[in-house]
Write a structure and sequence with these properties.
By secondary structure, the chain is mainly β. It contains 2 helices and 47 strands. The longest helix is centred in the N-terminal third of the chain and has 20 residues. It is globular and about 75 Å long.
Length: 743
């Protein structure tokens, strides 16, 4: 633990040096204030903003351009009105557009991708901690996106709240009405104001308009830069009780075993707000039949890939388990002390969840998240030996506690206990500290964080600790970061994610991101991104296992939104053991320096037809590898129909053998309305020789009341087959009805 202490020492020194280099202003910028009007009764949700009550609303007369030219005038006038009654928050938007026929739409899906859509959004901080909160976004078609805020730079779509919205196209633009029940939110009682901000995106201009902090260095999800919403009092949260029973009818067919079954299963989720800030959920006979299947990935590394959590029970409140700085779940994740996919999944087999309890929320300066799940007995099949291994019933627990020392410093701890295999013991304990400010050097963002963990188990020996620190300066012109981590060779987070134990990992780099002036020869470019990032991994004796230097001498976004990039990436790998790169292609131990290149081009997200191509080429170990990744997406004019075709084709030529790996994916989505959506996701890869389809119909009668029809089927190509024949492998047909009652 002495290395851990040294890490925190140097982190403290760095903090002192940075703070001393440029003291923060004595008086931070004043936050804008809006007082919500009082609605005499419920508002009819139709997108019209024509009820007399809207004339009593608190009004933001216009939003200010925050990007690309902060403060400059625009023809996109945006009026925002805010009302409250005892049970609801209402937000209305009147969006003027000089060319309404050019309003951009691509989706009607819940939590669909809206980067190329005209949208409006609301963020709320009902805790008053200026760190966490809720986000709600609506596009001009009425599609909804929501999430929980714990990172100022990005939103985690880890929460589906019960709220609603309606939009309407007009001759001068479009309007939106949003209603958020207070029963949907956790909040600190007695607060005189909530953190509040609103934003509008004009996709074809790549323009953002905002109320509070309309600057290039401000993130919309940074609640420390939000304004204040007053008039929030006498709120009614009712009993805080939600009961969500469901019934599932399923038919499964295993073609290899030659058996089929038909059964019905009931289940229940009960949510109760212990206080206005703390929420408890009980689940019994939990089922995730409606969950979208994983997106397949081609793995050309010797480490496991990261697949995100998609199951709703684990997503809700998941941001409360975020640990450290820069360690949120994602494709570049190198360590998570708690990863909920370890619960209810063992290998590629689903483990039944008999019951579970979850608690999350806040109590003053304290944050709390607890998860306790009882999984049932099952069995798994080893894919290599076909041996059947029983997995007994087991209990799995994860808990996290945080404490806000002040508005900038948060301390926390985490504890996990249990092993998904049901046989061995495992536990992990850790603590972390994160300090952040948005007023460094006047108005810049700076984040500092450190953490330490220790695991205990009966399966490994060696050093069972881990520690790390990170400094991050994420701003518009300069984005600089550095981090260091160390993981003992006996570190084993059975309920976490750690692909490379027994290593020291270092990463540092920067991106210089200038914006050319309008009268320069590069005026067609919106922003340059000159990047350099270096990553190195050593073993605990200091021997280098791998390093990678990423250079972006040319990376631009044009004014219209096109992306053009070229990268130069020298790297090194040291193999202690043979590595099977592909079937029959084994790379022997040794040292392998090689250089890769990447060329990338993508059209703007706001266009109805979007295309992109990425090509990696150059050396790979002691041979060559060319990777072609291409996609084309088409959306109908009003966002009802979406079709996306993507393909990855990898061609490897090495002295030990040649290989070709392909991954093809086709997505089809038809939305009659934002509440009635049919989707089909089809995938085929040559590694597994499996073609699979995940087809779903979701009908939301009203928020919290859903019907799902699901059809999953897989076909597999025999390994010794010389033709394109595919034989049926497994099939699932499910009908699930879920109904939520609130009191």
């Amino acid at each position: 633990m002495r290395r851990c202490c040294r890490a925190f020492f140097w982190l403290a020194v760095l903090s002192a040096l940075l703070a001393g280099a440029s003291p923060e202003p004595a008086s931070p910028p004043q936050r804008p204030v809006l007082t919500a009007g009082r609605a005499p009764g419920p508002i009819q949700l139709d997108g019209k903003l024509d009820e007399p009550a809207w004339r009593q609303a608190g009004v933001i007369a216009d939003l200010v351009q925050s990007s690309p030219r902060p403060g400059e005038s625009t023809p996109y006038q945006t009026e925002v009105r805010v009302l409250v009654d005892a049970e609801h928050l209402y937000v209305g938007f009147q969006c003027t557009d000089p060319a309404p026929e050019k309003i951009s739409l691509h989706t009607m899906q819940r939590d669909g991708e809206m980067l190329g859509d005209d949208t409006v959004a609301v963020v709320l901080d009902p805790y008053g901690d200026r760190r966490t909160g809720y986000a709600f976004r609506v596009n001009a078609a009425g599609a909804r996106v929501d999430g929980l805020i714990s990172n100022p730079e990005r939103l985690s779509l880890d929460w589906d709240g019960i709220w609603d919205a309606r939009t309407r196209r007009t001759s001068t633009g479009w309007t939106a009405e949003i209603v958020i029940p207070f029963r949907t939110l956790s909040f600190t009682p007695g607060l005189k104001s909530w953190g509040f901000n609103v934003e509008r995106a004009v996709a074809r201009e790549r323009m953002m308009l905002r109320w509070a902090s309309p600057t290039l260095d401000s993130f919309f999800y940074d609640m420390s830069r939000a304004g204040e919403l007053q008039g929030i009092d006498d709120l009614k949260k009712g009993l805080g009780l939600e009961i969500s029973p469901y019934i599932l009818g399923r038919r499964t067919h295993d073609f290899a075993a030659g058996g089929a079954s038909l059964r019905g299963d009931p289940g229940l989720d009960v949510t109760y707000r212990l206080t206005s800030q703390l929420t408890a959920v009980f689940t019994a006979h939990t089922d995730f039949a409606e969950t979208e299947v994983d997106t397949r990935q081609v793995n050309l590394t010797r480490f496991p890939l990261f697949f995100p959590e998609k199951r709703s029970f684990f997503l809700e409140g998941a941001n409360q388990f975020n640990f450290g700085l820069g360690m949120e779940p994602g494709p570049d994740t190198s360590f998570l002390p708690f990863f909920s996919r370890r619960v209810g999944l063992f290998g590629d087999r689903q483990v039944p969840i008999q019951e579970g309890v979850k608690l999350w929320g806040r109590a003053g300066r304290w944050g709390l998240a607890l998860l306790d799940v009882e999984t049932g007995a099952t069995w798994v099949t080893d894919p290599d030996t076909s041996a059947i291994t029983p997995v007994p019933k087991t209990n799995l627990f994860a808990g996290r506690i945080t404490y806000d020392v002040d508005k900038r410093l948060r301390l926390g701890s985490i504890l996990t206990n249990g092993n998904p295999d049901g046989v061995h013991s495992n536990s992990l304990f850790g603590f972390d500290a994160v300090w952040r400010t948005s007023t460094f050097r006047g108005n810049k963002n700076l984040l500092l964080g450190g953490w330490a963990v220790r695991s205990q188990n009966d399966t490994t020996t060696g050093q069972r600790y881990g520690w790390g620190f990170r400094a991050d300066y994420p701003n518009d012109r300069w984005d600089i970061s550095l981090s260091a981590r160390e993981f003992g060779d006996g570190m084993d987070p059975a309920l976490g994610f750690l692909p490379r134990l027994g290593t020291r990992q270092y990463r540092f780099g920067s991106a210089f991101q200038p914006r050319p002036s309008a009268d320069s020869s590069f005026s067609w470019i919106r922003q340059f991104f000159f990047e350099f990032f270096y990553t190195r991994v050593d073993d605990l004796e200091g021997n280098t296992q791998s390093w990678r230097a990423f250079f972006a001498p040319w990376n631009v976004r044009t004014q219209s939104g096109e992306h053009l990039e070229f990268n130069y990436v020298p790297q090194f790998e040291f193999l202690i053991q043979p590595f099977e790169l592909a079937r029959g292609v084994v790379i022997p131990p040794g040292r392998y320096p090689f250089t890769r290149f990447r060329a990338e081009a993508q059209s703007s997200d706001h266009r109805p037809i979007r295309v992109g191509s990425t090509t990696w080429f150059g050396e790979f170990y002691n041979g060559t590898l060319t990777q072609w990744e291409n996609y084309v997406r088409w959306t109908s004019g009003k966002g009802h129909l979406q079709v996306e075709l993507s393909a990855e084709n990898d061609f490897g030529r090495l002295p030990v053998g040649r290989f070709v790996q392909r991954l093809w994916q086709l997505k089809f989505v038809y939305s009659l309305t934002p509440n009635l959506i049919f989707s089909s996701y089809n995938q085929y890869d040559t590694e597994s020789e499996n073609f699979g389809t995940n087809t779903r119909l979701r009908w939301t009668f009203r928020p919290g009341k859903d019907l799902f029809l699901v059809w999953n089927r897989g076909w597999k190509r025999p390994l010794d087959s010389q033709d394109l024949a595919l034989l049926p492998e497994a099939e699932f047909i499910g009908v699930k009805l879920r109904w939520t009652f609130r009191r």
